[in-house]
Amino acid sequence: MAEDVPAAGGTPPRIDTSVPHSARVWNYWLGGKDYYPADKRAGDAYREVFPGIELLARASRGFLVRSIRHMAGEAGLRQFLDVGTGLPTADNTHQVAQRVAPESRVVYVDHDPLVLAHARALLTSTPQGATAYVDADLRHPDTVLAEAARTLDLEQPVGLIFSGTLGHIPDYDEARSIVRRLLAALPSGSFLSLNEGADTYEAANRAQETYNSSGAIPYVLRPVERIAGFFDGLELVEPGLVPCPYWRPDRKPAGDPAEEVNHGAVGRKP
Question: Which of 55, 140, 208, 261 is deepest in the core (most CB within 10 A)?
Answer without folding.
Answer: 261
